[in-house]
């Protein structure tokens, strides 16, 4: 891990923590659409969010077409069977044609601090995977590390417990779930896409062994929310299906198609008057990568999964309209710096690929018409270490939630 980067991230986090202590402490919780459904007092709850994007690559040498896309339209339906038992669902249309069920779960209140939850649920890693409504983040596109490392929108089927310990200002989640798929007739994990294609999304997901995940958010300091998240388990492989216990060679082959995954994350969100700061750090390590890469290459695909991945971002924005009492809208210029490396370390047979080590700078404007609708525009600059220059893309879009 790059020590300078890590220490810089911790320094900024510590500075926010220290500065926040000047003010009186108070609750500082964030609610996503599903949590709004759970807080609804009526019987039937309806909500949703959506976003429309325009992306235009910019090049001095090549004229490229832009793309316009109804990136997603999402509907939430919730139902309260009683004060204790609730149902939440999230149905998403992506790219104006693909239909997915993103969440569907039951929640039952056991105690004022403890709820049981089961069904298709979001894996609580990082910020964006749980808080991905377009009005909740700056930039037209979600941060890149949330695509590469923490895999938004990452959801799996499982069960567990969640709750809010108000006296301690702690929100927690802990689940047992089906894991990511590493082999379905071909190797799925690699350095380029990392783990993203391994999401089973609750669609005929196969389970060889469970995975464990959890997150704690501390919100007891005014204006500051800090999250610690973790995910542990082994990947799933179709080679473990209908495998006889006495088939030693087949078992060895199946074991070679599986990797161990240990993922850790820390994130922070801070606001003070017009200032908004957020950051996230993710680190993932793998076991059995050498055997996995050797085995999957025999299937005709050159898999090059690294032994570890590292990614982080830090972002700052400021609402320049806060100084005008008669203006209710918010105009937030922002800048976000990201870094990720899916080949942070590699095994003995894998050559480190510098194109997997990327720096991304995104700067732009969020014009918030109100809390639930936004117009966005930004410029994004991406440079792999193997490249000489940044590639540039102009993005614009609208977003809403209700």
List keywords for this structure.
mainly beta; single chain; 18 strands; Porin; globular; two-stranded parallel ribbon; about 400 residues
Regions with little confidence, pLDDT below 50 for 5+ residues: 16-25
Number of domains: 1
Helix-strand category: mainly beta
The general outline is globular
Largest sheet, in brief, is: 16 strands, antiparallel, barrel
User: What is the CATH class?
Assistant: Mainly Beta
The total count of strands amounts to: 18
Terminus-to-terminus distance: 41 Å
Question: Which architecture does the CATH hierarchy give at level 2?
Answer: Beta Barrel
Could you give me the name of the CATH homologous superfamily?
Answer: Porin
Measured by DSSP, the beta-strand proportion falls in over 45%
Structural Rg = 22 Å
Give the neighbour order of strands across the main sheet. Answer: 1-2-3-4-5-6-7-9-10-12-13-14-15-16-17-18
Tell me the number of helical segments per DSSP (H or I, 4 or more residues long): 5
The share of residues in helices is 10-25%
CATH topology name, in short, is: Porin
